[in-house]
Amino acid sequence: MVDQLTKVRFTNLNKIIFQLEKIQIKQPNLDPYFSKRDFNKTKEPTGSKKNGKDTIFVVQEHQSRRLHYDLRLEKEGVLKSWAVPKGIPIEPNKKRLAVEVEDHPFEYSKFEGNIPEGQYGAGTVKIWDKGIYKVKEWRNDLIEFFPKGKKMNGKYVLVRLKKDKQKNWLLFKGRD
Ligand SMILES: [Mn+2]
């Protein structure tokens, strides 16, 4: 016989499991990265070994079907990534669409080269800028960060567009 107290305990346990599942979903997850690629064919990195203490960023110029620039910010052992079709704004107040894409392994920050025809993102990848960065704020819908690169320098802001698909953000350079 299930008494009232047991029922309450089960309900609470389910709530806790639900919360844990939600937390897990928020953890960086490289499954989408691995599932999109055939590593017998592409030389893209599979490793996530971090070297150095600083938190790094990279922008990769990716000439695939359409030229775009991939902005990647290291967070919790992986690279949070956005594809920026029109490139990284260098001057304040120029807003650029940045489409959130799958997390990439840390070692992708060093990748340059060719992705073979027929593979996901086929084309060439070149590092456009890289360096370290500091975060002022990282929320679900707003990221304020300060990259120190050769081209990307000073205050930058990413804002998630709510009306759109949740993957669309705006990237702009703030006034320092
Ligand atoms: Mn890309």
What distinguishing features does this structure have?
16% helix; globular; alpha+beta; binds manganese (II) ion; eight-stranded antiparallel β-barrel; 176 residues
Helix-strand layout with pairing:
Layout: H1 4-26, H2 31-36, E1 56-63, E2 67-75, E3 78-84, E4 96-105, E5 113-115, E6 123-138, E7 142-148, E8 156-160, E9 168-173
Antiparallel strand pairs: 1-2, 1-6, 2-3, 3-4, 4-9, 5-6, 6-7, 7-8, 8-9
Description:
The protein is α+β, with helices and mostly antiparallel strands and 176 residues long. It has one domain (2-173). It is built from two helices and nine strands. It has helices at residues 4-26, 31-36; strands at 56-63, 67-75, 78-84, 96-105, 113-115, 123-138, 142-148, 156-160, 168-173. An eight-stranded antiparallel beta barrel has the order 1-2-3-4-9-8-7-6. Strand 8 (156-160) and strand 9 form a beta hairpin. The longest helix has 23 residues, at 4-26. The protein is globular, with a radius of gyration of 19 Å. The model has no long low-confidence stretch (mean pLDDT 89). Residues 62, 68, 70, 83, 121 line the site of manganese (II) ion.
Largest sheet: 8 strands, antiparallel, barrel
Q: Find the count of extended strands (DSSP E, 2+ residues).
A: 9
Average residue pLDDT: 89
Distinct small molecules? manganese (II) ion
Strand content is: 35-45%
